Amino acid sequence: MQFQIDATSHHKTRACTIKTAHSTIQTPVFMPVGTQGTVKTLDANDMLELGAKIILGNTYHLYLRPGSKIVKKMGGLHGFSKFPNSFLTDSGGFQAFSLSKNTKQHEDGIMFKSHIDGSKHFFTPQSVLDTQYDLGSDIMMILDDLVALPNTDERIEKSIQRTTKWAQEAITYHKAQQEKGIGVDQNIFAIIQGGTSKKFRQMSAEQLCSLEDYDGFAIGGLSVGEPNVDMYKTVEWTTDFMPKDKPRYLMGVGTPEDLIENIERGVDMFDCVMPTRNARNGTLFTTFGRVNIRKAEFKEDSQPIDPACDCYTCKNFSRAYLNHLYKAGEMTFFRLASMHNIHYYLTLMSKAREAILADNWIEFKEDFYKKREK
C-alpha cells in the first residue's frame, strides 16, 4: 500500500491518496457495504458507474456462504463479483457483537454458531486472516473484541487486552505468511477499542499503534448505542494517538452529518449500511436533508429526488414514479433508490475532498448545514 497526505485544511481535516493493488483511492472515502460480495440490489457495473473505488465485504458471511475456498477458486472477490477495484473485508468482530446470542468470546478467539444452520465455527486471529487471504481483499481487518455501550470498565479493559493480544498474533502471522508468498499484496489494519473513555481509548491506541507493521488503523466500537456527541468526542481524542502517515478508518459510521463531523476530526475512511438500508425503506438522502418517498405528498410530484443531484435516478425519474414503485412493491425501486443514495454519499466525499484541497473546509461545512436547515 502507498499512502500520502495531499492536503490539510481546518483543524485535523485532511485529503489523502491510498494506492492498493487494485485501485487508487482518494480520501475522504465512503465505502459502500457489500456484505455478501455485492452491494444490495447493485452489481459491479453499477458500482463502477457510481465511481466506487473500494467496497466492503463481510468475512463472517462469506466464510459461511458460499465459503472462502469457493470464492478463492472463482478468482477471489474480484473475480467472483467482477468488481475490479479494491475490497476491504472486516474480521467478524462486529458479527460477534450483532449476533451476540450466537457467539461466545474466548481468550484465543470467538466461537460462532451459524445463523444459517446452527453449525459451530471458531474464529481466531490467524483463521480470520486465512479466510481473507482466500477472499483476496486489498485491506484485511483483524479480529477484535467489540463490546456494547454503555459497559463496565472491567469489560472494556478486557476487550482492549484481547484486541491487543489478537493484533500481536495477527501481525506476526501475517508477516510470516507474506514470507511464504501468501497475502503479499494484501494490507492489514488493527482496530482500536475502548468505549467512550479517554483513558481506555488512549490505552488501546498506544498499544496497537506501537505495532508498526500495520498498514493502517481503525476506530471500532462506536455507533453502538452511545450519543452522537460522545462519539464525536471519542474520535477527536483518539485520532491524536493515531499515526499521521497511515490511513484512519472509522468503522460503521454513519449519517452524512457523522461523516462531515468526523472528517473534521481527522478520519479518512468510512463505511455504513445506512445508504442502502435506508433506500430499501424509502428514505433518500439529499442536499437538503432526508426525503421519505413513501409520503402521499410525492404522489404527483414531478421533481427528481434531489434537484441538485445528477445521478442516473435523478436525471431520469420523478418523485412520483419512485413513490409509485415503492407503494407497488416493485424491485426496481430498491435499485434506483440505492443508486441515488450511494451516489449522494460518494459525491459528498468528493466535494469534501475538493474543499480540503482548496483549503475552504469551514465554508464547505457551513454550506452543508445551511442547505439542510432549509
From TrEMBL:
Cofactor(s) listed: Zn(2+)
Region (RNA binding): 252-258, 276-280
Domain tRNA-guanine(15) transglycosylase-like: 12-373
Chain sites annotated for binding Zn(2+): C309, C311, C314, H340
The protein's annotated pathway: tRNA modification; tRNA-queuosine biosynthesis
Family statement: Belongs to the queuine tRNA-ribosyltransferase family.
Functional note: Catalyzes the base-exchange of a guanine (G) residue with the queuine precursor 7-aminomethyl-7-deazaguanine (PreQ1) at position 34 (anticodon wobble position) in tRNAs with GU(N) anticodons (tRNA-Asp, -Asn, -His and -Tyr). Catalysis occurs through a double-displacement mechanism. The nucleophile active site attacks the C1' of nucleotide 34 to detach the guanine base from the RNA, forming a covalent enzyme-RNA intermediate. The proton acceptor active site deprotonates the incoming PreQ1, allowing a nucleophilic attack on the C1' of the ribose to form the product.
Protein name: Queuine tRNA-ribosyltransferase
